[in-house]
Each structure stands twice: as structure tokens, then as C-alpha cells.
Amino acid sequence: MSEVGHVVVIGGGVAGCATAYELSAAGVKVTLVEREGIGTQASGWSAGGLNPLQGIPDSLLAFAMASYRLHLATWPELERLTGQKLGGRRISMAYVAPNDAEVVPLLELRDTFEMARKDGFSAQWLEPVELEEQEPRLSPDLEGGLLTFGNAVVDSQRLTALLSEAAEQLGATILAGIVSGVQRADGRVTGVVVDDEVIPCDAVVIALGPWTGQAEPWLGCPLPVEPLKGEILRMSMPGRPLGFDVVAPGISLFARPDGQVWLASTQERRGFDKEPSESAYRHLLGNATALMPAIKDATLLQQTVCLRPVTPDDLPIVGAVPGCAGAYVATGGGTKGILLAPAMGKAIAELISQDSTSLPIDAFSPARFSTQ
User: What mean pLDDT is predicted for residues 338-353?
Assistant: First the structure.
């Protein structure tokens, strides 16, 4: 096992907080530095959906499922350490086919869910009349749908906050400040500059989300991460709450325990623009109304925006920085950031405390960008 005296984690999003938690649980001294507040960026405004079986590249599947299992295993411990309820839960979700062309992919997805039964997943195909019986407010023009069980949802801001608080309970220090550099000597990390003062450390973890590029000159390694803007409409809809989430091409209706329905979500590359847009509002509301006409009677409560960190190959960056001993990166989860955070944090913690990890992260190494 490595002898690491002190690790500084830069970034108070879900990836940074998961890393601080896992390091603290491993008995490592940790300082987490965040400039604006825990979970105030994408981690606080995500829909919080955890779906490890759909919309994931093949090279990420095993890691995603491992992270999903870590979610379920970690939640009770977070509640125990913090004395607070997290409220994460497994849910039903209907993937619906608006036309014949969408039926075959959903039948293939049914096979994927059935193969994951050992992890509590299941799926059944519903013909149009059966789908209408389940939710009469859906469009009558649908060609059917796949009703699944096993995905999960969690309040992403609450998860991030509880990871931070649990890390503190285990001895971590949470520090508000602005990082302006990483000090190195003889090819390894020796400290982090925070508000013009140096915090000595043996290792540093960069978990800056879409702002990760600012660490490139600190570490001498390309870290191509950019923001992917996503917007969600939080709606109050009259009538009984949705009994399950509904997903169709271009739109998702996420049911919430308080009766809200979240219309999600857009994906746009607009730099660091965090302003809600009229175009996103029209896009989401139009698609949602076509899927469920009753949405026209819903009231908009809030339009939220978040900037997800994405990489050129749509894979996260998880691992040691080449040529800079003691430097690590945990970012780039994109639209699956909440799902992937526990495994990202555990992998980095194991690399630091044990020099290796059992999690499959070879494809996610920061070194892949240095050789391009």
C-alpha cells in the first residue's frame, strides 16, 4: 500500500466529493477545495437518473454497472454517517416507440434488461392498448413501449452534499478557495496553491468538470474537456402523478415524488453559457406535448441549466497523469456523470492508497490524449 500523507481534491462536484469520501474511508488525509460551493454546478442540477444499461459506449458498460452497484451499496452508509435521508430509489421507466422504426431497438433493449436480472432489472413489452391502460395520458399514436424496472434516481445535489458531509465525518477538510496552481518538484506533486497560499500535499486530484482544462499548464498534460449545456423544465401537472418515467427519442418525462414532472433534456455545445434559452423551452415543451398532450396544461416552475463535462471520445478521464507523479484526474462523466461518480471516486482512491484498482479504467487514462 502507498504511503500517502495528504491528498488535495480540487472540485466540489459529485466526482470530487465521491473521491474525497472514498479516500477518507480508506484512511487517507484529504482536503477538498471548492470555489463556489458543494454541488453548485452540474452535480446540483442533474436529473439524477442512474441507467447503466442504455446509452453507454461498449467500453464503458462494465465500469457503469460497477458504479451502479456502488451507488446502491454506498447510499445506506452515507445515511448512517450523516444522519440524513438520501432518498435514492429504484424506479420503473417506459421507453416508448413513436413509430415502427423504434420498435426493434426497444425489443433489443428488452433483451439487455433481461440479461441483467441478477442485478434486479426486468422488462416487458406493452402493446399500444396495454400502454394506454398503464398511462392513458400518453399519445394514442404510439406503437407500444418497453416497461422496465431497475433503473434508479437520486437527488444529485443531495447526493453530492452527503458525500461531502460523509467525507468530513471520516476526517476530511472542506476548504472554500480558488486554486491557481499545482507545485511540483523532481517530477512529482508537492503542493497546491489556494488563494496565494501553498497547501503541501503528496497527491492532487483534478475534478473540475468542464473547467478541467485550466489544470493543463499545472500538470503539463492535455485534458480536453468541454461543457455540454443541458436544460430541464420542472413542471407541475394537474391530475394524478406519473406512475413511471417515460422516455422517447428527443424527450424524457421524469416523475418526481412531489408530483412534479421534469422535461429533460437538451444537449448543446455553447461554451460556458448558463442562461436558460427560449429555444430549449420550446424544444422540450413541444416534444413533451407530442408525447403526452396533457403537458399543455402543466405549469412551468423552473427552467434549469447545467454544464456537463464531456471529452472528445465521450469517455471519462480517470487515472494518473503521465509524467507527473502524484497527479490524478476524475472528470468527463458527461450525461452519465452522476451514475459514474462512485466508481470514479473509488478507482482514484484505490490508485492513490493501493497503487492499483480492480475497476476497469484502462480506456479512461489521461495518457490517451498525450499520444494523439
Answer: 98
